[in-house]
Amino acid sequence: MKLKLDENLPASAAPRLAALGHDVHTVLDESLGGKHDAIVWTAAQAEGRMLVTCDLDFSDARTFAPGTHSGILLVRLPDEEQWRAADHLVAWLSDPDAPSWQGCLVVATLHKVRVLRATRGI
Questions:
Q1: Does 26 reside within a domain?
Q2: How far is CA 15 from the centre of its chain?
Q3: What is the pTM of this model?
Q4: CB count, 10 Å around CB of 29?
């Protein structure tokens, strides 16, 4: 999968995810740290990358309707688990179903991964 890690996630996750076969870019490596969400979003979409973020600004399924973008993985961990965010990312993105998340809005928590897919017309 082509991923873009937002600045609110540990850059140390990038090489671990790359070792799993993912093509990973980070916001910080691309000098996008501190930039407006719209700039980060545009960069991810221009590259066809799923945005991996903790930023709740990307959580609205009406604004970011599944099937209209390259995908969002919204990470929702309790404060006491933030130090293990890279471990959780590796676990979630090791899932054999993870490639099917392209174009979806995915919300990953400590106990569950919820995948919102594009709805099909009747």
A1: yes
A2: 15
A3: 0.94
A4: 13
Residue 61: inside a domain = yes
Q: Please count the structural domains in the chain.
A: 1
Which of 22, 23, 13, 6 lies closest to 95 in space, CA to CA? 22
pLDDT category, 121, cuts 50, 70, 90? Answer: low
For residue 108 the two structure tokens come to: 């990953």
Tens digit of each residue's pLDDT (9 = 90 or more) over 15-39? 999 999 999 999 999 999 999 999 9
The one-letter code for the residue type at 32 is L
Q: What is the 3-state secondary structure (H, E, C) of 21-85?
A: CCEEEECCCCCCCCCCHHHHHHHHHHCCCEEEECCHHHCCCCCCCCCCCCCEEEEECCHHHHHHH
> Residue 85 is part of which domain span?
2-116
Residue 119 pLDDT class (50, 70, 90 cuts): confident
- Evaluate whether residue 51 is within a structural domain: yes
The CA–CA distances, whole Å, from 122 to 62, 105, 115, 119 equal 19, 21, 21, 9
Domain membership of residue 121 (yes or no) is no
